[in-house]
Design goal:
428 residues, twelve-stranded mixed beta sheet, disordered N terminus, disordered C terminus, binds 2-acetamido-2-deoxy-beta-D-glucopyranose, repeat, receptor
Amino acid sequence: MPLRLRPPLYGLAPVLLTLLAVPLGAPTCPMLCTCYFPPPTVSCQANNFSSVPRVLPHNAQRLFLQNNLIGTLRAGMFGPSLVTLWLYSNNISSIQSGTFRHLQALEELDLGDNRNLRTLDPDTFHGLERLQSLHLYRCQLSSLPNTIFRNLFSLQYLYLQENNLLCLQDDLFVDLANLSHLFLHGNKIWQLSENVFRGLSGLDRLLLHRNRLHTIPTWAFRDLRKLTILYLFNNSLTTLSGETLSNLPSLEFLRLNNNPWACDCRARSLWIWFQHTRVSISDVICASPAERKGRDMRYLKGTVFQDCPPTNHQPVGFDWGCRPEWENGAVHPHPNGSSNHLYGLGGSPPADPSSFYRDVPANEIRSPKYDPPTEDDYWGSYGSEEGGQLKKGCSGPGCTSLDSGAIRIGFLSLPLPCLLMLLGPSWF
Ligand SMILES: *[C@@H]1O[C@H](CO)[C@@H](O)[C@H](O)[C@H]1NC(C)=O
Ligand SMILES: *[C@@H]1O[C@H](CO)[C@@H](O)[C@H](O)[C@H]1NC(C)=O
Ligand SMILES: *[C@@H]1O[C@H](CO)[C@@H](O)[C@H](O)[C@H]1NC(C)=O
Ligand SMILES: *[C@@H]1O[C@H](CO)[C@@H](O)[C@H](O)[C@H]1NC(C)=O
Ligand SMILES: *[C@@H]1O[C@H](CO)[C@@H](O)[C@H](O)[C@H]1NC(C)=O
């Protein structure tokens, strides 16, 4: 690795010698990428790459490939040292089986915003036993294979928002006892099966807003003993059983606004739950019957329900199931009897990734990662609960020590361009 020092820079030699402590013979930094450490990092973002660079330094722990045009991921592309792998905002449409299989150190995998990613193989994430954070937001996923999250025992953050998911089947998350955040908002989910959340005993936040839920099975939240935040606003819920909510002993914040609530006898158990809970709750505006339209269900007088049958068990709702044939694009009955062809074939048309790419402001393209969404992005402007301010705090691994800021060479204050001039493209 030849290194030419120009006379005025001799003073930097000690620093450079530190840099040269990289083992000789380490693979070179790929063209157009920047390599730095610690930890060993390869940053190739925003280069219009159409594929993953063929030779990557084998000891790299962080690989940043976001904001390119990568279309396919294949087995053998990534080395086993990787801890952090960012592939968001590419054009990934297929992930070959085995691509991530040997990444036993991987803790964070960001595949978000790949708007041609429609399907995932059942074993795509198998073997990622250390994975803590999996980002699959803003893709075009309309269903998930039954075993896709099997054995991901370390997973804490699972981001599935803004896809085209229609239905979530039983036991989809059953191994995720350490999961803290499950974000499912902005999909087309119209149906939850009764055991869909089984196993999520550590879950803290469940976001289901902006979906098409008509009903929630009575026992759907049974395992969620630690859940503190539940968002169900902007769905199509007319009823929700009080029993469903009394299964949530840790609940603190609940948003039910913008649903067409039926404030007749069907609301009785929910109304009773409201009278006894200390949870902070959004408004719950009645859509029917006509004489109660516009009133807040929470503040109805008990006399409204006095003529209701005493043991008014909530209709559980027919279990339409999320059947396996679903995954083969089979047409599924819609609860109101209308046909469901459009949903069945993958939802709305794909966004043109290139137009998306152009929309990203230049300064964001250049930074290794956009700022992770703040709490306010998730909680703000959605109406508010009464009597409570949501906890401020960290919403994910984006706020751990992981340095998501600008390119940084910890122990050097020298501006990066100077360093690159000094060192040439292959100092890693
Ligand atoms: C990537 O492609 C876009 C559109 O063709 C172009 O404007 C941009 O300059 C390219 N970026 C790089 C780093 O080559
Ligand atoms: C993105 O991938 C699709 C195929 O999935 C392809 O048709 C399209 O041309 C790609 N776009 C770019 C900008 O490479
Ligand atoms: C995940 O949770 C289990 C208990 O459910 C625990 O034994 C294990 O240590 C946890 N793993 C991690 C990585 O947190
Ligand atoms: C929720 O729905 C209301 C109307 O039903 C709409 O005005 C509002 O923008 C929606 N909010 C979100 C966050 O989607
Ligand atoms: C069924 O629901 C869809 C959307 O929720 C609606 O557009 C359609 O009119 C409904 N059909 C019937 C028969 O109620």
